[in-house]
Amino acid sequence: MNSTPAPRLLFLFDMDDVLVRYDWKTRMAGLTELTGHDLGELRRRWWLSGNEQRAEAGGFPDADTYLAAFERAMGCSVPESDWARVRGAAMTELPERIEAVRVAAEHGRVALLTNNGPLAGRWIHTWAPSLPPLFGEHLDTTSNFGARKPEPEVFERALAHHGAAPEDTFFADDMPENVAGARSVGIHAVLVEHETDLRDAVRAFVADRHDTLEARLTSA
Fold first, then answer.
1. Residue 7: is the preceding peptide bond cis (ω within 30°)?
2. Which of 144, 143, 142, 213 has its CA nearest to residue 182?
3. What angle (nearest 5°) sits at the alpha carbon of residue 72, between those of residues 68 and 73?
């Protein structure tokens, strides 16, 4: 449970292809060069075996354990700095989307909720330097909650961690299945597509919650 007071409104944001553009091909090209394995072999050794999903669901207790498992799977040394450089090179901040976080922060707590493991969590502040000043200590990967999107458990645990009610929580993600997972526990979830103005979506949610609160007070 978070030790700070529960927020009136909670805003959860995915990272890849929501707040940053993520170029998977660039990352795979970098890992191919780093490990000497082609794309098919990379995927077979790590992704198709389920290791990355395991990491996202909290299957590795810390970043060092994750990296050691990755090295074993690759059969070679993978310096952490190189792993991080390759991942970071595939990411580009999206200023208008990040502006939506600033808008949300005026009305409640903002928190990241990205399908990533503990090693990514160690480096997010470097890959996307605009995020730490906005999110503070709430740069959360799903591995922190022992489940991954779209599983309802990850959303329930995030709500419990922040002490927030689902109806007072906003969530933005680019994957329809993740949006559905959030909605299944009562969270107001928005599907982020190429033309989505996330600022408008945040403002609409704030206005709706304000109107709902006013209605409650009026009828009380």
1. no
2. 142
3. 115
DSSP 46: I
Query: Tokens for 56?
Result: 């996202």
Class of residue 130 by CB neighbours under 10 A (exposed 0-12, middle 13-18, buried 19+): middle
Look up tokens 């995915």; give the residue. 14
pTM check: above 0.85 = yes
CA distance linking residue 43 with residue 215, whole number of Å:
53
Among residues 153, 162, 158, 143, which one has the least CA distance to residue 184? 153
Report pLDDT digits (tens) over 91-123: 999 999 999 999 999 999 999 999 999 999 999
**Amino acid, single-letter form, for residue 206:** V
Residue type, 110: V
Tell me the DSSP string of 54-104.
Answer: HHHTT-SSSHHHHHHHHHHHHTS---HHHHHHHHHHTEEE-HHHHHHHHHH
**Distance from C-alpha of 187 to C-alpha of 50, rounded to nearest angstrom:** 28
